[in-house]
Amino acid sequence: MRFGESVCNFPQSRLDRGMRIIEPHFEILAMDDGADILRRLEKAGRVCYKSENRITPDSARDFVRTILLSGHHSVIEHAGATVRIVCDRGVSHELVRHRLASYSQESTRYANYARDKFGREITVIKPCYWADGSPEYALWHEAMLAAEKAYLALVDAGATAQQARAVLPNSLKTEIVLTCNLREWRHIFELRCAAAAHPQMRQITLPLLAHMHERLPDVFADLFEKYKKDVSG
């Protein structure tokens, strides 16, 4: 995959009775070539041992594997990745709990969904745990329509976007750009790919782990092996 290539793992959006219902997805915005990352990590890590003289054209991979096995994970903080994630507000609230990261997120204070640029509708993330046509899905769907109706009515009555957002649901679509170093990405995957993580969080993190492993297997191989069944399933 090339730098900046869009990575969308789920079906594209569809229109449904006034509001827009979409699946979560992500895009890797910035991540250096794997070989370049390994060389950078080796140069940084060998300073600790003053073994720069052992650097060769082929030594970076083994060095990085060795430091990961030894638990010297501070070295992989010298490289990172930036990802744009489209998810619901509930998932984004969990993501921003990770401290060692930078975030830029769609603001419901300034994004007025009653305006024509948003199609005068809200966009929500489809829950992955209720099948179309099920009683639970029908109840969720009606609740989303009611939230949209209330939001638009408040804006039409003179409320600002930051006031009207009080009635917006956790299922509201949000876009969040997340940048952190590789050590923190590993920590995120360890927590958010686990079976106990929220199903909608795993919708994002499992395929994202697979893509990062494809780009940089020497850093993510152990985690990919741990969750490979869940990724392929």
Task: Please characterize this protein's 3D structure.
This protein is α+β, with helices and mostly antiparallel strands and 233 residues long. The chain has one domain: 2-Layer Sandwich (Gyrase A, domain 2), CATH 3.30.1360. 45% of the residues lie in helices and 16% in strands. It has helices spanning 34-49, 60-70, 89-95, 135-156, 161-164, 182-192, 199-215, 217-232, and strands at 14-16, 19-22, 25-30, 80-88, 102-105, 123-125, 173-181. The strands form 2 sheets. Strands 3-4-7-5 form a 4-stranded antiparallel sheet. A 3-stranded mixed sheet has the order 1-2-6. The protein is elongated and about 70 Å long.
Topology:
Elements: E1 14-16, E2 19-22, E3 25-30, H1 34-49, H2 60-70, E4 80-88, H3 89-95, E5 102-105, E6 123-125, H4 135-156, H5 161-164, E7 173-181, H6 182-192, H7 199-215, H8 217-232
Parallel strand pairs: 2-6
Antiparallel strand pairs: 1-2, 3-4, 4-7, 5-7
Helix pairs in contact: 1-2, 7-8
